[in-house]
Amino acid sequence: MSVREGPVFSLRNVRRTREGGGRRFVLEVPALEIAPGARLALLGPSGSGKSTLLDLLALVLRPDPGSERFLFAAGAAPLDVAAAWQGDETPLATARAAHLGYVLQTGGLLPFLTVRANIALPARLAGREDRARVEELALRLGVASVLDSPAEAISVGQRQRAAIARALVHRPAVVLADEPTAAVDPAMAVEVMALLLAETEAAGAALVLATHDHAMVARLDLPVARFAVADRDGAAVAVVGA
Amino acid sequence: MSGRLALVARLAVADAAHDRRLFGCFALTVAAVMAPLLLLLGLKTGVVEHLLDELRADPATREVIHRGHRAFDADWFARMAARPDVAFVVPRTRELSLSIDVGRPEDPIRGQRAELVVSGAGDPLLGALGAAIGADSVVISERLARQGGFAAGQAILLWAVRAGAARARADVSLRVAAIAPARASERAAVFAPLGLVADIEDFLEGRAVPARGWQGVEPPAARLFPSFRLYAASIDDVARLDAELTAAGLNVETNAGAIAWTRRLDANLTVLFAILLACAAVGVGMALGASLWANVERKRRSLSLLRLMGFGRHALAVFPLAQGALVAGLGWLAAAGVAAAVAAGMNVALAETYLGGAALCRVRAVDLAVALALALALALAAGLAALRPILAIEPAEGLRET
Questions:
Q1: Which residues in chain A are contacts of B312 at CB distance < 8 A?
Q2: What is the pLDDT of residue A1?
């Protein structure tokens, strides 16, 4: 893992407006930088804008025109995300495939593949297939015994752990996790979180975690990005602050 | 990029394998339509080919018969023989003077009356036997062989008797090269080279043939023949020859009508089949398109996850196309198997009754290949129906549980 000097994400005055249900919602990011290997919890209740920010960082949501700076610096050359959204989306898809890993609420495994094929898929997509790494991650995450089971046949806890393996298999720069413990029981939640933190750290990946679980964030002593929501000109405006 | 497309195709196949019952049903839908069509086509081929085989097997089908007498010179025969649509053409001599006698060399008195027919290599009536005809060897008809007790390889004596004031007899010693099959001629006939026939005709007409030592008047410089025996190269050349010779003022008879009828039957059955095929293709295409579309909708969550993971919008288009091709391929495989088995059964059970032993249902390899190509093309077209929904899938959908 090469050591990067600058931040992987660098955002300045990025906005995203969402219309829905006759109400306007605006997320404003005055300044946000995420260093390589850093951890950041996006903490807030539903509707606070943490999902919007996670989508922006996941490179699947287009920022409003006029954003001052939105750089993603994981590859050889930094990707100007705001500019990439103006063209065809190929550079964004390529960046997602090469440098981002995702852990979703219920794992988001493909039901028609085995656990092994699910874990291996991002590495295959990135052209970095590595059987030994799949086995190793599965062993560390405790899903080695179900590697050849259909993804839909394993328990929810196993799914979340397999999803962590999948998010890390292609050695991404950033892992994005969206409420990764929402679907498991409290005991399992502690275990899954501990594994997620340990493995992203071992892989040297930054971790951005969207959650509403204040207690967990406090217990793990994670750096937090908070969302201050205010009413401005009839629109709900959420401002991200460190 | 191509590796990524191949990966999408493999995921599409994995998805189909996971939903194998559903996709099995899709494939059966294709097979259920394709198998009867293949059998229908096989029956059409069997019946039409049987009719054409019968026409082709009988050289008489290709014969152009000239009624009447004209004067055809050597040039005319050379021109006709050079045409690619003419398989065989030889002169026919004046029929009344053709009768000769054939007997054993040791008994030059009692002969069998026979007719003399100009023949040679390539004569469709004789097939390969025609090549055995030479200056001193002839082929005789089966009836003549029976009447005279002649066998192949045997020496015979052929003679002609000139009537009238210059009454004389000409003898020619020959060898029987072969006995023609019965279908070549029902009569007692000698298939002989043109030179021999021309000499005997000259003799009978009272002209001298110095080469054979036959006395008579001086022969004319140029020889003209009153008629011809002509066979077209194929059954499809008969109509043209008929038309051209008729246009040249000759009175000819051919089987052009029967041949045209068979061809018309073939063409009409082909049109009928094409209409059926088009209807079936539209039906199967729509069913397959709807199935693939529905599968994209059902797999929307998985597909959006793939988009989230970094598969490009257009790369995912391979997903329904690959599944369509898979369904078409499996459907074709099942249909080909069923059609081959049913065709074989039909041929065993029914061919004896209807076509005298010929295969009633002929499912040809080329038909199977075309069926596969059509099925794949149809599957791709059906896959295109699923393109709009699949291109509309956003990666952000993959992040949210909906």
A1: 89-90, 93
A2: 44
